[in-house]
Input
Amino acid sequence: MPDDPTQLSRLLRLFRQAGAPSEDSTDRDGAFSYHAESHAAGLGIGLGAIATATGNYRYVGGLLAAAFGLNRGPTLSSSNITGDVRQEPHYFIGGLALGLVLGAVV
Output
């Protein structure tokens, strides 16, 4: 029988580190080690799944443009999540690819 408190404490530590303000502020340096990585991937997965399920891809294009720094149309400068996508575009694109597949399957 696994030691539940140890597993729970590991999981809680992982969640706390994923919300860290920078990679330098955590002991772990790798995938999903701070908030920008987890936000960008989560947004990509969610957006991809919703876009495929509904057939509406216009927001995908807008956030891809934001990920690569294009500043056309309305600005989202007050949105921290857009900054996370710009900071970690590869996590967003990977999450988007996974979300598109999930949306097609579901």
Observations:
- The chain has a mean pLDDT of 75.
- The CA atoms of residues 77 and 95 lie 22 Å apart.
